[in-house]
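Chapter review: from sequence to fold.
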Amino acid sequence: MPTHAPSTQSWINLVVLFKEQLFRLDSVLHHPLVGLPFVDSLIRGFLLAAEHPYRDALTRDERLSAPRAIRSAVEIIEAEACLPLTLSSIANRSYVSVRGLQQGFQRHLGISPMAYLREVRLRRAHQDLLESDPLTVTVALVAHRWGFTNLGRFAAAHAARYQEPPLKTLQRTVFQRSAQLGQP
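The token string follows.
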């Protein structure tokens, strides 16, 4: 990666900012609405700054090239994942038929709208588990907060995605905090 290129310098500035903010207890990076997109930006920035044969393909974001109705539905899901969204309510608010929404998601994102909603909720639940105190928060509480009513399915989906059960994710947080503070 050429260090003199503007895109490389921009990416290095992002890394420095991330490093400065990561260990500050009051940093907004610890909030999933800020931290997750920032990490995504670091990864995307690296992929765009580094020279490789697939860089041009990365500049075409399928969500951005999707029709307005699909982009609108994605925005609704991302912003309101904690609410009881239905396929028909998302379609109505996106000014498209249910079938059109399903076809558009499949064509442009390769996933159904409700599967996309489940993925967003799972990602947010995982982040909550990482940030929560297991003395005051349970896996069931986090799962229900994000719309998972079947705890067995939630645990299976979480384990498949993050390679560990949700309880271990919740407990791991305490061990990491203790290690950072130098406590046993």
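Two observations follow directly from the output. The chain has a mean pLDDT of 86. Residues 121 and 146 are 6 Å apart (CA to CA).
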